[in-house]
Specification:
The chain is built from 21 helices and 16 strands. The protein has about 550 residues and is α+β, with helices and mostly antiparallel strands. It has four domains: about 110 residues, Rossmann fold (3-Layer(aba) Sandwich), CATH 3.40.50; about 60 residues, Dna Ligase, domain 1; about 140 residues, 2-Layer Sandwich (D-amino Acid Aminotransferase, Chain A, domain 1); about 160 residues, Orthogonal Bundle (Carbamoyl Phosphate Synthetase, Chain A, domain 4), CATH 1.10.1030.10. β1, α1 and β2 form a beta-alpha-beta unit. The longest helix is centred in the last third of the chain and has 19 residues. It is globular, with a radius of gyration of 24 Å.
């Protein structure tokens, strides 16, 4: 690739029609890509039928085709518009699959269309499980024991080696479509039939259910400069799809040795594969040892990329687009400071928590259990200083009637069953189990959730017990606010109205502190509000 591409007209593939488990979350990535291309004065041809996105809003220099992101439609657009180049990594799996098919069918070569960013050869290595495992073997990186199968007979033969229980996954899909855990032969045959309906290749893998699930967002340029911008940890253990899980950034339960080990594996893997731009690498980590497995590499922007960007302030999609054009990390500016380079790894003194939202009650005969196939329809992100604070804030932000982890409209008939078989109400069930006297060790045994997270939830319970049993004082008020209790909930616990609690704490001076924030305004005016929010965990209480 030349230093800067000579392309003047670029075709950008969007994420397609809005569905559960895909499309909507890539609006962020596509919008940032458009911004990066417009800055270079390029003519942009966007293919995306989703009208309900910021990406498809009218903008100068952008011509939009509201057509399906499928090879037969995109080929006709290429024939008409004759773009110089195409970008695949900003529209999720839909765009990646479409671009790969256009490449292999000879369409891109026929019309002399250059691929910007990660090559299709690299994409194929990450998407085809046989090829992916072969590449990881070359560099000594561990991956789950698995078999890539293209027929039902091959899958049944693979089961003889993998053994039950096992995980069945459909290749080339987003949102875990067609995946699930099989515990007996009957479940296995149902799952493989379902998976083949999604994809021509399925994966039969060893079950690592109960291991920690960790992700790293990695950026690499054409000169092999490589950084890990953000790492994230799932609250739920492996077995629950990342899109279905509560996720915290940065990771909270890893030792420095574990963090650095996984970071080193990430950079080694991405460099070997030759990704140019941004990608996501997902791990399973044994909670009782340093044994790990690389689950997958997404050679594109993912839904986690949007979370990582908003959590850290590092514009991953924007930077990835610039790298695809041929820039290097040291040539791009840090958008936060406006003066240093983009070749840096953010360091956070706060945490960001993502909580999914489900609307399963709108569907008939749907299972309430959440697992390896994504069912959530949206998510929120909460910022704060502690896990306790962002968990309570996040649960309120879901707008499902909860005012925190303890105050909600839900009842539970069988707590142990919900703990063992996760549902959208699992966090509330954990708290209720603690109220009923269940210990952290007992809950950890049933859920396989790391005790660190459970102990933080237990701390919320102890604070609530203190609020209910003691006379409110300034120290207890400070503790309650730092752990995410709203004025409304505090009022319910002490028998006062919300407005009375607010008046009380303001008289005591228990208010969000924004000292020194004005000193930043002169240097980084565009970032003042962002820093105020993240550094101080501000919440609008009314």
């Amino acid at each position: 690739m030349p230093k800067i591409t000579s392309a003047k007209k670029v075709l950008l593939l969007g994420s397609g029609a809005l569905k559960i488990g895909e499309a909507g979350e890539f609006d962020y990535s596509g919008s940032q890509a458009i911004q990066a291309l417009r800055e270079e004065g390029m003519e942009i041809i966007l293919v995306n039928p989703n009208i309900a996105t910021n990406q498809t809003s009218k903008a100068d220099g952008v011509k939009i085709y509201f057509q399906p992101v499928l090879p037969e439609f995109v080929e006709r657009i290429i024939e008409k518009e004759r773009p110089d180049a195409i970008m695949l990594a900003w529209g999720g799996q839909t765009a990646l699959n479409c671009g790969s098919q256009l490449f292999h069918s000879g369409v891109l070569e026929k019309y002399n269309v250059e691929i910007l960013g990660t090559s299709v050869e690299t994409i194929d290595k990450t998407e085809d499980r046989k090829a992916f495992n072969a590449e990881l073997t070359k560099i000594g990186v561990h991956f789950p024991k698995s078999h890539a199968c293209e027929t039902k007979e091959e899958a049944l033969e693979a089961l003889k080696d993998i053994k039950l229980p096992c995980l069945v996954r459909a290749a080339f899909t987003l949102g875990g479509g067609g995946s699930g855990f099989a515990y007996n032969q009957e479940q296995f045959e149902i799952l493989i039939n379902n998976a083949f309906a999604y994809s021509p290749q399925i994966l039969v893998e060893e079950s690592l259910k109960g291991w920690k699930e960790i992700e790293y967002e990695v950026v690499r340029d054409r000169n092999d400069n490589c950084i890990t911008v953000c790492n994230m940890e799932n609250f739920d253990p492996l077995g629950v799809h990342t899109g279905e899980s509560i996720v915290i950034a940065p990771s909270q339960t890893l030792s420095d040795e574990e963090y650095q080990m996984l970071r080193s594996v990430a950079t080694k893997t991405i460099r070997h594969l030759g990704v140019v731009g941004e990608c996501n690498i997902q791990y399973a980590l044994d909670p009782y040892s340093q044994e790990y497995r690389v689950i997958e590499v997404n050679a594109r922007l993912s839904r986690s990329s949007a979370l990582a960007s908003k959590a850290t302030g590092y514009p991953l999609a924007y930077v990835a687009a610039k790298l695809a054009l041929g820039y290097t990390l040291d040539e791009l500016k840090n958008s936060v400071t406006g003066c240093t380079s983009a070749f840096f790894e953010p360091s956070l003194d706060y945490v960001a928590l993502k909580i999914p939202r489900w609307d399963l009650n709108k569907f008939r005969k749907v299972s309430q259990t959440i697992s390896s196939e994504m069912k959530s329809v949206g998510e929120i992100m909460a910022l704060g200083r502690t896990f306790e604070e962002v968990l309570q804030k996040g649960l309120r932000m879901l707008q499902i009637g909860a005012q925190g982890i303890s105050h909600h409209p839900y009842a539970f008939e069988d707590i142990k069953d919900i703990l063992e078989n996760p549902t959208p109400l699992r966090a509330f069930a954990i708290y209720r189990a603690m109220q009923e006297g269940m210990s952290v060790d007992e809950i950890a045994e049933l859920t396989k959730i790391d005790k660190w997270f459970l102990e933080k939830i237990e701390r919320i319970k102890k604070t609530e017990d203190n609020i209910s049993s003691q006379e409110m004082n300034i120290d207890l008020m400070k503790k309650a606010k730092k752990e995410g209790f709203s004025d409304n909930v505090i009022g319910k616990l002490i028998g006062k109205k919300e407005i009375e609690v607010r008046k009380m704490r303001k008289e005591w001076g228990v208010i969000p502190v924004a000292k020194k924030i004005d000193t930043l305004a002169g240097e980084f005016p565009a970032q003042t509000n962002y820093l105020y929010m993240t550094y101080h965990g501000i919440e609008n209480d009314g």
